[in-house]
């Protein structure tokens, strides 16, 4: 007999998340290299007319080497023989330490963003269009993070881990951990699909999967409690059943009017108004922030419902 007790279960326990933090895949690194070229050029002289630097890669290499405590970023490509551009690019492509590889990205984009916003360079930046190029490159960088399911974003001059944000660490990850339980298999799959669609820019599909996950979670709770809901029950009827059976106690209902409104009209309304039937021949455009809000709202609602059931 093989025992699977607490210590073994928790030793093998996976850190439930929809993002990867430990590995930067090679296709991602190559895509970022193209962004370095967009910003600084292949030889590093693209900003010469703005900041009077002959080689921006020289600036980047010297700053990183000093910070890392080394003379060269890579032993295979040294600036003395191959040039600063090849030392920087190949140092980035070959860097095995993920944190240091992210340092390359953060420093390059921090410098480009600083140049694009400094008053001293305002005229030269605007006339060359470098501010627009920097904004476009930053948007593409964050898109590439999402495209490869990497849990990072470049925000206000620095790279931020998503799991260091309050919403992600206190709402998204606990929800994913709850949904990883066997009985929530269907809801878990739908919630992961919502994230996948969100990362890939399929916002209508993301909202639909949010609603499915929300409905599945309530249906699973109702079935376990024997509350007799139909297999095709809608979000509205499932919510009503949860309240009728005091998943949220009646004597709290007056104090939780806003929560009841959220459960009844939050996620379903977002889906119905922006993504549901009757959209017509022209599909409505959904802003990214609406979808992010809907995902966070779905996660917090699922977390609340499951914890409320455990307290019955």
List the helices and strands and how they pair.
Blueprint: H1 6-11, H2 26-40, H3 48-51, H4 56-68, H5 79-82, H6 84-94, H7 98-117, H8 122-128, H9 130-147, E1 152-155, E2 158-161, H10 166-179, H11 185-200, H12 203-225, H13 235-244, H14 257-274, H15 288-310
Antiparallel strand pairs: 1-2
Helix pairs in contact: 2-9, 4-6, 6-7, 7-9, 10-15, 11-12, 11-15, 12-13, 12-14, 12-15, 13-14, 14-15
> Could you name the CATH topology of the largest domain?
Four Helix Bundle (Hemerythrin (Met), subunit A)
* Total domain count: 2
Strand segment count: 2
Mean pLDDT: 80
Computed structural class: mainly alpha
Overall 3D form: elongated
CATH architecture of the largest domain: Up-down Bundle
Radius of gyration: 25 Å
Query: Numbering strands along the chain, what is their spatial order in the largest sheet?
Result: 1-2
Largest sheet: 2 strands, antiparallel
**Helix content percent band:** 55-70%
End-to-end distance, in Å? 34 Å
CATH class of the largest domain: Mainly Alpha
Element string (H = helix, E = strand): HHHHHHHHHEEHHHHHH
Strand content: under 5%
Tally the helices: what do you get? 15
Low-confidence stretches: 3-14, 255-266
